[in-house]
Design brief:
Length: about 400
């Protein structure tokens, strides 16, 4: 398969994303105002509670079996590595650019968390459907690709609301006052710079943190042990279980149960399944997720066109981390995993693992900045430029990965 054919196969899905994103941006401008702050907030919640869970349940239940689940064990490890390596690179970037303290949490979030669900759900099926695709039959490729992307979305959601959330919270000053009431939370979400795909929260974290600060300095009589326990409790108190067990995460668990439990699978999945209508309904709802999310991304980028408040060197650094250093290190990680037998010979699976290192920042990072009421306008600028550069970067890396695996 020639380089030009690979380039065309990789470019088309990215162009599709850009076109739909441009439509979302157009719908958000004041003159049209079909995707204003209130409309985006409503659509965000529909996607969060209905479309994304339906898509994950349908894809996982149809394609994931106990055998395939064992086969995919390395994917959660691979995603965790993208977060850890991205965090390390973010720390280096902060030191080099001398990033102001109030922007450090944003840099960490953007470098560590990638868009592990929505873009993969767009790019992978589109690549599979290309006549020049190196991944074999388009139908089988699309089915397996959507399952891999759905698993990526579910695992990524868990990591973002545990690892990234805690990491960012440690670098935000006065984070204990970030959420005062559910009314303020709703107001924040109405003007969110990125996907506000979370329910309102009553600010239990601040109360927990205050309670932790009131703990006695000695519990077991050993200062070092007491300090360590105190710090562990402070960290665990910042993990919001309601966000970890978001609808997408619960949907992933349901999808795993349906797919791996043979009696339930026979009732729901298959042309002769008596309850197939449940799967069909979930699949129909899930098909609305991708265009809806892409429109929202475009509409949210409007804030990046209207505001600016971040150093150009920081933006360039984040782009370099996400589209140069992470992909290069990703090739080393995936190839090493394949060499040591941790990843099988399935080229599509390896392609997904590689692509997880090459994505723009996850839109949930913007939601976290909203929760902390910090760096909101800067978040819009970063999202604008990283997603603009992603059109070229993802195309080139996708082309390289397909050449590498073909």
């Amino acid at each position: 398969m020639g380089f030009l054919n690979l380039l065309i196969a990789a470019l088309e899905p990215v162009v599709e994303v850009l076109l739909v994103t441009a439509v979302g941006l157009l719908l958000a401008i004041d003159r049209i105002d079909l995707l204003g702050p209130n409309a985006r907030r409503s659509l965000n919640h529909i996607v969060f509670y209905v479309f994304n869970p339906a898509l994950i349940v349908a894809n996982l239940s149809d394609t994931i079996t106990f055998t395939s689940l064992v086969k995919l064990w390395f994917m959660p490890v691979n995603i965790l590595l993208t977060f850890i390596i991205g965090s390390a690179l973010a720390w280096i970037l902060i030191k080099i650019t001398r990033t102001p303290p109030h922007l450090q949490s944003l840099v960490i979030g953007c470098c560590s968390a990638g868009n592990l669900g929505n873009l993969l759900l767009i790019i992978v099926p589109a690549v599979c459907e290309e006549s020049n695709s190196p991944f074999g039959d388009s139908s089988t490729c699309s089915t397996n690709g959507e399952a891999y992307a759905s698993l990526s979305m579910a695992v990524g959601s868990i990591y973002i609301w545990t690892y990234v959330y805690v990491l960012m919270s440690m670098n935000v000053k006065d984070s204990t006052t970030s959420i005062k009431s559910s009314g303020e939370t709703s107001e924040m979400f109405s003007e969110t710079c990125t996907e506000a795909l979370l329910p309102s929260d009553n600010g239990s974290t601040s109360d927990d943190s205050a309670n932790q600060d009131e703990l006695p300095h000695t519990i077991f009589g050993v200062p070092f042990l007491d300090t360590t326990i105190h710090r562990i409790k402070n960290v665990t108190a910042k993990i919001k279980l309601k966000m970890v067990f978001a609808p997408s995460t619960i949907a992933a668990a349901v999808g795993f149960i349906i797919g791996t439990a043979s009696p339930i699978r026979k009732l729901i999945i298959g042309d002769s399944a008596p309850l197939r209508v449940i799967y069909s309904s979930a699949s129909l709802l899930g098909e609305a997720s991708i265009p809806s999310v892409t429109l929202i991304i475009g509409a949210n980028l409007l804030g990046g066109l209207q505001r600016s408040g971040i150093s150009f060197s920081v933006i360039i650094g984040i782009i370099a981390v996400r589209f140069i250093f992470l992909p290069l290190l990703g090739v080393v990680v995936v190839k090493a995993a394949h060499h040591f037998g941790m990843v099988g010979s399935d080229s599509l699976y390896q392609f997904i693992l590689l692509l997880q290192f090459s994505l723009p920042p996850g839109v949930a990072v913007g939601t976290i900045t909203q929760l902390f009421q910090t760096s909101v306008s800067e978040c819009s600028v970063i999202m604008l430029w990283t997603y603009a550069v992603a059109s070229l970067a993802i195309t080139l890396w996708t082309t390289f990965y397909m050449w590498l695996l073909s």
